């Protein structure tokens, strides 16, 4: 019966092959990329862009939006990302780049991508210890998200260099985004679109100020009260960038060396942008579609706070439900 | 030509009739209802319950969820309600009762209902001046939302008394709701469902504690550290109520007279609920689908804060874009 044996062997090998292929398909690739002498760990989820909304194919031909979110370990992180994910899950042709300030990628973020069927990529990049805010530090002590946004830029330049169209936006995990903001972004024609941001810089709304010509509106200033001498006194939430600009200026990055409050301005300057090139959106900057809301720091009792701090290394110190609240 | 005259008259009358009917249809009825010797102003939007999600008819036969949200004038109110509305707009068979602590209903809330196609009702009920928190007051000085939640209860009892099935839930405007919370609510069988709430009462998670019998799980306590002596040491976000219970106990209300932290407990006691009747949900209280997040108070500059305070009476003191940020 040698023939039958060959058949069985073939069957076993075939089953084994199928098993291997299936595991490979489900495997979320971890790629090491060297970047500024450190390791950027990349956890790639789904790279094929399809419409997130099953019943809405209308914007498949429109520019994809690349939404970059730096995020870090804190008691409210899971809540904030859940809420943001549920907002982004409604936007079609959106690609979400989450960059965690962490040693290892959090499983709940992968689950969020899968559950909400959001396309994107989950990266991890740690802030160097000497640049990291402590819980008790004031927010302004160091600029936050520098490393993470730069990792995203690096990733975009390496992996989306074939994308001729697309919009890059830096969106914090606790801001509030009206869905209509995404329609505005897709109107960007050339380089950079700008719009008002609610509750930021001590103001009800920070906004570009416009000049009206016979045929057009152009930005001729900003209403910022805080450091109005900045070249672009704007919050990160107030502009989005054509991806071609990111590719053309292939070395532009955010920098710790920018003076306090100048991070956005220096970055925009490095993209060779002039004020008159900014494209005012949101009905000539009269509508507010994004607010710089912040989630209040949780007032945890001392024991709970210690448990939270220890949990990042030894998650077994938590009960099942505590683990589910933060991881 | 008297016949022709009659025809023209008939035509004019008919056009007039159509005009009146159209206006009536679009008119958001303002009804005055006397309640505790004060006026409850009711702005009814759409009362027919249909599925919010165009492509999702699967839960039309399931219990409707009545989501009650007290809300008040503050710089972040519009942002919070926009974000919450976008979350609720994804839940089918949901009826949103917003109760504003205001003199007049805010137009942006009506617009939100219309834009997101959410079914519900928009009520206004002012907190008496002597019970109203000032901006600088600590949160615990008075219980918040008492009048507004009671107005909602009153409205439900008067207008939804024919509803034999349905779930009533009290959801703040700045909490974080995982969509899966709503699936849990619909599992309530008899009276009241309970589940864990993240980041509340100084803890990572407050949760009912369960006893496991051969066939069942029952609530035998709570892990609350703050005032654990309360009969039901739970946050408002941690339970939902079968509408039949609301109708059966037709005088149950929230009260300013409850000692601090006892508002939920006293209300549940007034519904004649025993601990063993609570139905533990969210996978035997091991999953967290709601977090008691709070939006940080905006650090507005003095001039901006004054502008904000004045705006509630004279909105013309704001520029168009400032108005859009908060109204």
Provide a descriptive summary of the structure in words:
The structure is a homodimer. By secondary structure, chain A is an alpha/beta fold. In chain A, about 30% of the residues lie in helices and about 25% in strands. In chain A, the strands form four sheets. In chain A, strands 1-2-5-4-3-6-13-8-14 form a nine-stranded mixed β-sheet, with helices on both faces. Chain A is globular, with a radius of gyration of 22 Å. The N and C termini of chain A lie far apart (about 55 Å). Chains A, B: One of its GO terms (cellular component) is Golgi membrane. Chains A, B: It catalyses: 3-O-(beta-D-galactosyl-(1->3)-beta-D-galactosyl-(1->4)-beta-D-xylosyl)-L-seryl-[protein] + UDP-alpha-D-glucuronate = 3-O-(beta-D-GlcA-(1->3)-beta-D-Gal-(1->3)-beta-D-Gal-(1->4)-beta-D-Xyl)-L-seryl-[protein] + UDP + H(+). Chains A, B: It is an enzyme of class 2 (transferase).
Strand arrangement in the largest pleated sheet of chain A: 1-2-5-4-3-6-13-8-14
| DSSP E strands of chain A, number | 15
The biggest sheet of chain A amounts to:
9 strands, mixed
Q: Would you tell me the overall average pLDDT of chain A?
A: 85
> Looking at the chains present, what oligomeric state does this protein adopt?
homodimer
**Greatest chain-chain contact:** A-B, 49 and 49 residues
Alpha-carbon Rg of chain A, integer:
22 Å
Amount of helix of chain A: 25-40%
Helix-and-strand structural type of chain A: alpha/beta
Which range does the strand content of chain A fall in?
Answer: 15-25%
Helix and strand pattern of chain A:
HEEEHEHEHEEHEEEEEEHHEHEHH
What is the first-to-last residue Cα distance of chain A?
A: 56 Å
